[in-house]
Amino acid sequence: MQHPASAHQRQLKPTTTKDGSFGISERTKTKRRLETFNSAMRIHGATTENTASAAVGMVDALSKKFSKRVLVDAVSRDTKFCEKVFPQIYNRKVKEFENSNENVLRSIAVYFTKGVMGKRKYISAYKNLSTKKSLSKNRKLERMKIMFCDVSRVLPYNKLMKHVRNIEVGQILNVKEFFCSDLEEFEVGDGCFRNLTDFLPLLASFYLSLQELTGEELLWFSGSVNTFQVVLGGDGAPFGKDQTACAWLVSFLNRGKHILSSDENFLIFGANVPESGVAVRRYVKHLLHDMSEMEGKTYHINGSDVKFTFAEFPNDLKMMAFLAGELSVSAAFFSTFGNACTCNCDDPKGTFGSGSGHKWHP
To answer: Between the chain's N and C termini, which has fewer beta carbons within 10 Å?
Structure first.
C-alpha cells in the first residue's frame, strides 16, 4: 500500500491528461506499468510461471469498475488491442457465423429475393461484398477488413447450390412430357408445372409456420379459420419461343396486403407456349380437376384441419375469354362478359346491369 504522501504526489501527476492521452514520460510509464503488474500478481495469486490469473483479474476489474465510454476511449488508443487482440477474437466468430445455418439462410435470401439472381450475378455480389483489389502482385483480390477485422461473407456459389438443391419444393413436372406428347412440333413448348394437390398444402404449411414464428396473423374470412382463399391466374407475354410464353401463378388472399407483392405470388406453370395454345388448354383441364378434388377435402396440416376455396381469378380479358370458351376479346368489345363496345362507350349517363333500364348488359 502506498504512503499517503506518495499517493498525493501521484495525484499531482496522473498517468493521463484530461483528453485521455499519456501525460508522463516513457520511463515513468514503464515504472508504473511494472508496479501495476506486480500488485495484480500479488492480489490474484499469480506466479512467474503462470501469470494468467493476474491478467484475468485485471480484465475483470476493468470490466466491472469502469464505464463502457471510459473503456472504449482507453482501449481504442492501444494498437495491440485494436490490431491483434480484438481482430483475433472477432475473426474466429466471423468464421463460426459463415459456417452457421443463419448465413445459409442469408445467402439463399440474397440469391432469391426479388427474382433469382443467377450464377454470374451472385458471384459478382459475393466478391464485391467482401473482397477488394489486392495491392500484392501475387493475388488479384483480398478480404476486406474493418479495423483489421474480416468482413463476413455470404456462401460461395458452389456451396450455396448444395443447400439450394436440398430445399424441399415439391414435385416439379415436365410440360412437354404431360401435355405435348402427341402434338405437332410447332405446338410443343418447354416448361414445368406443379400439381395444386401437392403445392397448396406445402404452401399452407409454410404460412402456418410463419404465423407461429412471426406472430403475423393470417386473415380468416367470415370466421372460416384455417380456410385458405386461393387466387389463381394465368397470362401470356411476347417473349421466348416464337414470341410466346405463358405463366400461371397462385397466392392466398389470407395474406392481406401482402397479396400485392410479387414475393407472395408463386409460379405453378411456366412454358414457351401461347396462352391459348393446346398445351395450356390441357393444363387448364388439369387445374380444374385439381381444384374440384381439393375443394371437397380437408387436409391435416401442422396439427390443424385446413380447407381450400378458390376465390379469385385475376386474369386479363383475353385469358378470361379463353377460360370461358369464347373467342379472344376483339378490338371492339372491352369484356367478354358485357356488351359495352367502342361504338357506345362514350355515353356518360349509361349504366351497366340486368334489365331494360340499363344500356349495357351482361
So the answer is: N
